[in-house]
Amino acid sequence: MKHSKKKRKYIFVVGGVMSGVGKGITASSIGKILQFNGYKVSAVKIDPYVNVDAGTMNPVEHGETFVLEDGYETDQDMGNYERFLNVSLTRNSYMTTGSIYQKVINKERSLGYRGKTVSVVPHVPLAVVEQIQESAKNEDADITIVEIGGTVGEYENILFLEAARMMKRQNPHDVAFVLVSYLPIPSAVGEMKTKPTQQSIRTMQESGVFPDIIVGRADGIIDIPRKLKIANASMLHKQDIVSAPNMKSIYDIPYYFIQEGLDNRLLKKLDLKKRNNEFGNFHTKAWKKFIQSTKNQKKEVTIAVVGKYFDTGDFVLSDAYVSVIEALKYAGYGQKTKVNIDWLSSHDFESGKRTVTELKKYHGVLIPGGFGNTGIDGKDMVIKYVRKNNIPFLGICLGMQRAAVEFAQSVGKLQHAESDERNIKNSIPLVTTMESQKTKIKNANMGGTMRLGSHAAVLKKGTLARKIYKRETISERHRHRYELNPKFNDLLQSKGMVISATSPDGQLPEIIELDQKLHPFFIAVQFHPELQARPLNSHPLFNAFIKASLKNKK
Ligand code: GLN
């Protein structure tokens, strides 16, 4: 094989002082600047929790679950990697403590260790190394960015640092370490403090790994005296200490890093030279064009996103829907339009804290995916209002299921039409599970068993969906246990609902819409289009939704 001899390089990105300072974005940006330099970059994310994947976690706690093409339910940082690097990753690119132990245990059960005692060290870190190398090979990456979740000094991620140490020992010139650390500016003191970072450096060294680069996340820029202090503590050159101040747009960070000379330093540490090739030029040019579009917004629309995961404040809210937010933004950029998003809790419509007539002021309304039984009635109220008042509507996953139920109840006069997820007695099962799901639910076999990952759908001629996609067959990513019940396809259509896309066998509705004679833009999809929206490739559905919202504004 042509590529098998390729020397693959690895950059481990670890956190210092505290988590939640943007390690994923930093790691993605590092990948981006190496792409500019002509290197094929891939990414691996390691989450130190015991959950085997991110699918069983509450988004309020963990943020969005990002589903890969192959259906693996992963951390939202995987979305950052796909968006920044313009790649589609596979399940080898993600691991957790749980998934690694599961691998080791499965190997032991099948005599894979040939009678040896299987120990936490080295067997667990060796399994980590194996997967990282496998991922690099699969993606045929020149450089693989490996982000280790959490911060150095935590009990939880120590085995992953040990894996990194092993890789460094084996090929010192092929592995580099980036410590992304936080530099607080306590208000009582008024100056940037380096001591917590110095301590993190020491903690990192105790695990046997030494930083090659330190990225200092802070509210401001790190000045030279402070860079020198950090350099001294880490035995690095001051050029290896890189500022990462807060930026208005995360997409500007790669350019900031280039300005700091980070690409040159990293290439040097990895014994690599700048490459001038077509791949690097393509990414340099495409990113530049994208960045220009982000700074050229002449119009504005305001979209209401009605969900239920924002009961605990702004931070959590944007974390649970990060792909939806980015998808809306990209669609705006392409149309020189700033997209403002208002987050409305569906509970507020139920409790009377808000009235649906407030929705009049929005140019478009989006209902994203969701799970569970609360906040559903509020969503139905919102759907009814936008349907009757010609407000552009995009429903995603649960948003589509509710659009179908609301339509069946109100327009179809099928008062008892419901989703089985709500478990209401004597209801007409308009939204139900497939046969294959029933035993899974019965046996509480819930992890990684939904309808997941990319599935094809066929679009009907003459529909809005077909106009938007300009194609007959599409492939989109799914994550749901329930479906529109194909038994009712004819009934729904006889009442005027258009089923504009189905699974290739013609059974499962994948997109529903209202005839444009009845409503200017009412469309809902069973899949998650936001997962495929990219800076370099905004998503046609979001583009069309923003276009319709702009038109509605006029
Ligand atoms: N709760 C619904 C289901 O499981 C919708 C899921 C979603 O919106 N992602 O089918």
Helix count? 20
Radius of gyration over C-alpha positions, nearest whole angstrom = 25 Å
Task: Write out the CATH superfamily name of the largest domain.
Answer: P-loop containing nucleotide triphosphate hydrolases
Shape: globular
Overall pLDDT: 94
Number of domains: 2
Distance between the termini: 58 Å
* Largest sheet descriptor: 9 strands, mixed
Label the structural class. Answer: alpha/beta
CATH architecture label name of the largest domain: 3-Layer(aba) Sandwich
Q: What's the CATH C level of the largest domain?
A: Alpha Beta
Helix content: 25-40%
Bound compounds, each kind once, are: glutamine
Task: Describe this entry's structure for a reader.
With 554 residues, this protein is of the alpha/beta class. The protein folds into 2 domains: 9-290, P-loop containing nucleotide triphosphate hydrolases (Rossmann fold), CATH 3.40.50.300; 297-434 and 482-500 and 508-553, Class I glutamine amidotransferase (GATase) domain (Rossmann fold, 3-Layer(aba) Sandwich), CATH 3.40.50.880. It is built from 20 helices and 21 strands. The strands form 4 sheets. A 9-stranded mixed sheet has the order 11-10-12-13-21-20-19-16-17, sandwiched between helices. A 7-stranded parallel sheet has the order 5-2-6-1-7-8-9, with helices on both faces. A hairpin with a 7-residue loop joins β20 (509-514) and β21 (522-525). α1 crosses α9. The longest helix is centred in the first third of the chain and has 19 residues, at 120-138. It starts with 8 loop residues before the first strand and ends with a helix. The model has no long low-confidence stretch (mean pLDDT 94). The chain binds glutamine. Residues 369-371, 397-398, 421, 479-482 line the site of glutamine.
